[in-house]
Specification:
Helices cover 45% and strands 11% of the residues. The chain has 407 residues and is an alpha+beta fold. The chain has a domain of 61 residues. A five-stranded antiparallel sheet has the order 8-10-11-7-9. The protein has a two-stranded antiparallel ribbon with strand order 1-2. The chain has a two-stranded antiparallel sheet with strand order 3-4. It starts with a helix and ends with a helix. About 17% of the residues have low confidence.
Length: 407
C-alpha cells in the first residue's frame, strides 16, 4: 500500500511537470515574431496582414494617412490607413478611355509608378460635369464682355471682399496665427497682412475650400477640356506624385472645380514646387493654417519674386474722371517720370520707391481710379493674373492691418 501511494504521487508529479513545460513552450512560440501562429489576428503597426497557408504571417507596407481634421479632408478625426490597392483592370467612368490608359502607361514608365495602383486610383474616378460646365465645355453659356472693363466693375468686385465681416475675421486669424505669420515674415520677408489677405480672398480664412474631388476634377478636365488639356494633364501628373509623396487617399482631398485645394488654394504643381511643412509635423497639409501660411510666403518669394520692404501699390491723382491715355494693367511698365509727364501724381511719397511701375485702372461708377503697381503687385498677380484680384488682396490686407493696429 505504501509503495502504491509513492507511485501515485510520482505519476502526479510527472503529469504536472509535463503541463508546465508544455505551457512554457507555447508561450515562447508566441513571443517569437518570426513564428507567430496563424491564430494571431492583430496586425503589426503600419502593415497590412496577409494570411498565408503556412504557420507564419506575411506583412506588406501600407500608406499611413496623416490625421487631417481640417476642412477639405473627408477623413474623420480618428486615425485611418490608406491601403495601397492594385488591379490590372481600369474601371470607373473612363474605363474605356484610350487617352487615360496611355497616360497611366506613361506615368508608370516615367516615374516608376505602379501601373496596377494607377488603375485602382483611376477606377474610383467619376465624371465632374460641374467642372466642365464652369469652363463652358458644353458651349451652353453665351459669350459675355469682360467684367473688368465694365463701368463700375471695381465697385462690385471690391464689395465682395472688403466687408466688415471679412476684415474682422482677418484680424482674428492674424491674432490666432501670429506665431507662424511672424515666422514667415522673418524667414521670407513677406508682410503678414498680405498672407492673411490671400487666405481671406481665396477661402475666407478656410471657411470655404471647395467640395470637388480634386482627382475627379483634374481627370475630367484633362480628358474632356481639349482647349486646356495639356495644362490639366500636367496638374494631374503632379497630383499623382503628391499623393505618393504624402501618402494620402486619392479621393480624400476636396477643392475647387479647377483642382486647387487648401487654405492657400494651390494647384498640385504649386504644391510640389512651393508648399512647405511649416509646423514641422512631417507632413505638408495645406488645410493646416501653419503650412498654408509658410507655403504662401514661399510662393510669393519663389514664384512672385517678392521684394521685402518694397511697397505694393499707390493711388495716384489724375485731373479727369476717365482715363484713356496709355495702356493699363499689371503687365505694363513705365518710369515714374513718364507717369508724371502725362499728368499723374502719387498720393504720397510711395515709401521712397523710385523704380518702374505698372499702371492699374479700376473702373468705378463715377470715375476711373488709377494706381501705380510695384513688382510686389505683380507678385500678387502670379497667384491670380487679374488686376481686380491683386487689388482686392492689397486693400483687404491694409484694412486688416489698420483694424489690428489702428494704423
Amino acid at each position: 500500500m505504501h509503495k502504491i501511494t509513492k507511485l501515485t504521487l510520482l505519476a502526479l508529479i510527472l503529469v504536472f511537470s509535463s503541463g508546465c513545460i508544455q505551457r512554457q513552450l507555447s508561450t515562447t512560440t508566441v513571443q517569437n515574431p518570426n513564428e507567430l501562429p496563424i491564430a494571431v489576428t492583430t496586425p503589426l503597426p503600419g502593415t497590412q496582414t496577409i494570411y498565408t497557408p503556412n504557420t507564419t504571417v506575411a506583412t506588406q507596407p501600407v500608406y499611413t494617412t496623416p490625421i487631417y481634421t481640417d476642412p477639405g479632408y473627408t477623413q474623420p478625426a480618428s486615425e485611418s490607413t490608406y491601403v495601397q490597392q492594385r488591379t490590372p483592370y481600369l474601371q470607373g467612368a473612363y474605363s474605356s478611355s484610350y487617352q487615360l490608359k496611355q497616360f497611366i502607361s506613361s506615368i508608370a514608365k516615367k516615374y516608376n509608378y505602379d501601373a496596377y495602383e494607377l488603375n485602382a486610383i483611376f477606377s474610383t474616378v467619376t465624371r465632374d460635369t460641374e467642372a466642365l460646365k464652369k469652363y463652358n465645355v458644353f458651349k451652353t453659356a453665351k459669350p459675355t464682355y469682360s467684367k473688368a472693363v465694365q463701368v463700375g466693375s471695381w465697385d462690385k468686385y471690391r464689395g465682395n471682399f472688403l466687408t466688415t465681416s471679412r476684415i474682422n475675421k482677418g484680424v482674428a486669424f492674424w491674432q490666432e496665427n501670429a506665431h507662424y505669420l511672424n515666422k514667415a515674415a522673418q524667414k521670407y520677408g513677406v508682410a503678414p497682412e498680405y498672407i492673411v489677405g490671400i487666405i481671406g480672398v481665396e477661402t475666407n480664412y478656410g471657411g470655404y475650400t471647395g467640395t470637388h474631388s480634386v482627382l475627379n476634377a483634374l481627370t475630367t478636365l484633362s480628358l474632356e477640356y481639349k482647349k486646356r488639356s495639356k495644362f490639366f494633364t500636367s496638374e494631374l501628373e503632379n497630383y499623382l506624385l503628391m499623393l505618393r509623396d504624402e501618402r494620402v487617399d486619392p479621393q480624400r482631398i476636396k477643392g475647387s472645380y479647377a483642382g486647387a485645394f487648401g487654405l492657400a488654394q494651390f494647384m498640385p504643381s504649386s504644391f510640389r514646387d512651393y508648399a512647405v511643412d511649416f509646423n514641422g509635423d512631417g507632413h505638408i497639409n495645406l488645410f493646416n493654417k501653419a503650412d498654408a501660411i509658410g507655403s504662401i510666403a514661399n510662393y510669393f518669394i519663389g514664384k512672385g519674386k517678392w521684394q521685402p520692404n518694397v511697397p505694393v501699390t499707390m493711388m495716384t491723382y489724375y485731373n479727369k474722371n476717365r482715363f484713356y491715355g496709355v495702356p493699363a494693367g499689371h503687365k505694363t511698365n513705365y518710369t515714374q517720370q513718364y507717369m508724371y509727364s502725362i499728368g499723374m501724381r502719387p498720393s504720397s511719397n510711395f515709401n521712397g520707391y523710385k523704380g518702374n511701375v505698372s499702371l492699374i485702372k479700376l473702373s468705378k461708377a463715377n470715375r476711373d481710379e488709377l494706381w501705380w503697381g510695384t513688382p510686389n503687385f505683380r507678385a500678387i498677380t502670379r497667384y491670380n493674373p487679374k488686376d481686380h484680384y491683386a487689388m482686392a488682396v492689397h486693400q483687404l490686407a491694409q484694412a486688416i492691418k489698420l483694424a489690428r493696429y489702428g494704423r
